[in-house]
Design brief:
- 78% of the residues lie in helices and 0% in strands.
- It is mainly α.
- Helix 3 packs antiparallel against helix 4 (63-86) and helix 6 packs parallel to helix 9 (181-204).
- It starts with a helix and ends in a 14-residue tail after the last helix.
- Pfam families: MtN3_slv.
- Keywords: Cell membrane, Golgi apparatus, Membrane, Repeat, Sugar transport, Transmembrane, Transmembrane helix, Transport.
- GO terms for molecular function: sugar transmembrane transporter activity.
- One of its GO terms (cellular component) is Golgi membrane.
Amino acid sequence: MSWVDILSIAATVTSFIVQFIGIKICFEIISKGNTGDISSIPFIAFFISTAIWLKYGLMTELTNVILTSALGTLLQLIYIYVYYLYCTKKFQFYVFLIIGMMLIVIPLAYVDFYESEFGRAKRNLGVYCGGLTILCYASPLATLSEVLKQKSTHSVSFPLCFVNFVSASLWTLYGAIIKDRVLVISNVFGIFLGFIQFYLFYKFGCKNTKPTHVLETP
């Protein structure tokens, strides 16, 4: 086994670890009997991302991307179903879900039926994947104003940020080796955001009382 294969496996494993974070969130929802202040947007957004990455993995024939994206897509479907069972704002949930499905169907229809040149279709879908990944990595910063206001990182999960940082670093290295600019650019941004989050922990200390409802994609 080459060191490139080891790097590929390590990147895949770290992605698997982060994907399972949603299970804890689902248990929180089930134990409370309702979704409380937990939004459906992260679950739907990450379902969009993993579904599109799965298509990109199939087009590029990258086994590790296919594995992580397939698992992510399956888990997000489970998380979304659990959320649906316990949410009270069904109409809002349906609206977000319909928008999410459109954000999946339109680009997939583009690469399968509209764009006849495979290379261009793959490149454009890759750009879309990169944008989705950057948004996923940036999602923990949604609590930035709360962190700065309260001068506390209690609303941010350090273990999750750390695993995300490691995962982004591994995927960046792997992408550089196989010369996949989509993997490199999107995950370099994840590394940059990781440093920002680490600085916040350095400045305000590591005092977590609740997990950040954020997952990650390749």
